[in-house]
Amino acid sequence: MSNTDRYGTLGAFFGPLTSSVKIYKTRIFKLACQLAWFSRIRGYLSEVSKRNGGGYPLYYVTIDLSPKASLRLRNFRIPVGVFTKLLRNLELRKRLHELSTLVSTTLKRSSDFISKAAALELMKIIRSQVSSNEVEVLHNRLNTLVNSDVALVKVINVRRINYEGYVYDISVPGTELFFGGSTPIALHNTGHPVMSTFHAADIDRLIQRLTSHPINVPKTHMDALNVAWFQSAVYTKAGFLARRVIRIYEILGYDPSTDNILVMPVFSWDPINDRFLFSGRGSSYLLEEKIAVMRGISRKELNTIYEELDLRSRFIELMIKKKIFNYYDVWKAVVKAHHLGIEEAYKRLLRDELI
Known about the structure:
Blueprint: E1 2-3, H1 7-10, E2 21-26, H2 29-41, E3 45-53, E4 56-64, H3 67-72, E5 78-79, H4 80-94, H5 97-103, E6 113-114, H6 116-129, H7 133-146, E7 177-180, E8 185-188, H8 203-211, E9 227-235, E10 241-255, E11 260-270, E12 275-278, H9 285-294, H10 303-321, H11 327-340, H12 342-350
Antiparallel strand pairs: 1-2, 2-4, 3-4, 5-6, 7-8, 9-10, 10-11, 11-12
């Protein structure tokens, strides 16, 4: 690798070329990426560009060694979404509506990012107003993020490029975090919950069809499915044909000792009284072992999950009582419940102030 003399062309990456800007060229793409990575790790801005020279590609690495450039990475702002999500979670169980008013001057919802100083001030307000183990854990995580050297930037666009080499996706349990790109960028696998329909009369037939030809899903992967519910056309006591959810199952996982998929029924339909029975209270694997863990709820506070489930049920029943059946009205109610928290949304619905 050697210094290049084409300063005028490549100096535009960081403005006028100065002695602090170093540009290197090489025919080896991997070598160029390694140099850019080492530069970023040391705290210097670096870029990799490609040009054709003499019938073969040349890769240019531009490194800005100036103190101003090295500090630029540490001055990026903090995403607002981190704090708005935290506030929604707090309001959901702690009724901190006054807290939202208190921080509204600090948190500008019209902006995607806030400064590090504003983030620290916001964390100070939250910590002073709320005292609980959950808030302390979240506060410590945010404090680590805000005071770290990790730069958070907004993705402007994504484009497809031709690539013929290998792609390595290394899964890190618990974080799913890995690094990639010609310059080191922290990447994160994002999973999106989905719902799908499938023709099967009951849970046994569902598993049989998913794990046999031609679908052939391995039994060890069946725990990727969280919930399965089954509908059927039934006749009510009045003699009308109706559709009911017959049963809802939670998928617990695969048992290698019996080569079976472990499932647990949590909801079932009572055909005599035409009502639904919840048998999963106090024993729901999905609520207690997955959702509670993701939301940072301790074992002592597990009952809050079931209380919220009851409140969501009452919220839907109240919508039915108030004859809110229009698609767009239902959609608005659900969206506002998500943003306001189910408690506040329920109160507003009672006062006919939600929609």
